[in-house]
Amino acid sequence: MIGEPDILFERHGPLALAILNRPRALNSLTLDMIRDIMPMLEAWAADESVAVVAIRGSGEKSFCAGGDVRAVWEAGKAGDPLTRDFFREEYILNRTIHRFPKPYVALIDGICMGGGVGLSVHGSHRVAGDRTLMAMPETAIGLFPDVGGSWFLPRLPGESGTYLALTGARLKAADACYLGLATHYVPSEKTEALIETLAETDYDGLPAAEVVEGVLAGFATDPGAAPMTRHRAGIDSCFGADTIEAVLACLRSKAGDDGADSAWAAEQVKLLETRSPTSMKVSLEQLRRGAALDFDGCMTMEYRLSQACMANHDFYEGVRSVLIDKDHSPHWQPASLAEVTPELVQSYLKPLGERDLIFID
């Protein structure tokens, strides 16, 4: 869409609609897009004529495939302040969505990963479709599951959040609904009609949240059985361990027996062995701490983690491997779990002094 902005804003009666408009980049989120949507959300929250806000992606492939990590990677290489500004302003946006006072409907029909999850999961309604593919794949690029992952992942059923954080497992609509990452499933062919109905519905004198829930109930259908249920026992027993080494030991034990989880467990071992050892240990500590923090505390912790990642090796090597050279052969430093000491993990959590992300209100 040459000549069009990277994010579009529309009004359809009581419905305010944001459209992520970078389809060739799978609608990945840039700092400029963050800076465009923040004042619009603030204006819509204050505008009494806006009853409901919705957000969707342009094109059929993606809602939002994540933050523009390539730009952050380039900035880090050049010493550009984008490595500070992007995460700070993205996390403030996540908090704004979390606290948004009106129904916020994210239409996540397509790829929804990383930063895209941050744009959706904190809202009141998340609508999966036929093309939904959700994941938090950060440990594959030397990062950690941010954008509020400290908050929502530990609060998913059992140890499913830990499993998603460490493996980057990809979920379709049924699993997304099963875990509560999506609140509704609406077939893709009904998306346009759903938007039209949200725009044409009378909200006068009625609680908007109840009206939106009624509209969604009229379109939502059963997404079918969730594949993840087949492995929930294995997920909860292995990913509930206190260390990554113990997680792997549990999985290797299951892979070596004749149980129903053996093939699945072997697959998880193979996958985890490719992930950044530092990212896995930091992510596990992040989630365990996040379970006891409030939302603002989670975001403060995540900003500290983000800045530690920007100052260390694995993010740059992970992005190089996955997005730049695409050889998928990262050389992590440290290269083994044994070399990632507790002291190293704790160093990622140090306060930043005047640069800390602290919320006053």
Description of the molecule:
It is built from 16 helices and 9 strands. By secondary structure, it is an alpha/beta fold. Helix 1 (31-46) runs parallel beside helix 3 (82-98), helix 6 (160-167) packs antiparallel against helix 13 and helix 11 (244-255) packs antiparallel against helix 12. It is globular, with a radius of gyration of 20 Å.
What would you say about this model in short?
By secondary structure, the protein is of the alpha/beta class.
Secondary-structure map:
Layout (H helix, E strand, L loop, with lengths): L6 E6 L2 E6 L10 H16 L5 E6 L4 E3 L4 H10 L3 H17 L5 E5 L2 E3 L1 H6 L4 E4 L4 E3 L13 H4 L7 H8 L5 H7 L4 E2 L5 H10 L7 H12 L12 H7 L5 H12 L6 H11 L4 H14 L4 H16 L3 H11 L17 H6 L14
Parallel strand pairs: 2-3, 3-5, 4-6, 5-7, 6-8, 7-9
Antiparallel strand pairs: 1-2
Helix pairs in contact: 1-3, 2-15, 3-14, 6-13, 11-12, 13-14
Number of E strands: 9
Compute the gyration radius: what is it? 20 Å
Helix content: 40-55%
Query: Which whole number gives the mean pLDDT?
Result: 96
**What pattern of helices and strands is seen along the backbone?**
EEHEEHHEEHEEHHHEHHHHHHHHH
Approximately how much beta-strand content do the residues carry? Answer: 5-15%
Strand order of the largest sheet: 1-2-3-5-7-9
Low-confidence stretches: none
Structural class computed from helices and strand pairing: alpha/beta
Task: Name the overall outline.
Answer: globular
First-last Cα distance: 39 Å
Give the biggest beta sheet.
Answer: 6 strands, mixed
* Secondary structure tally, helices: 16
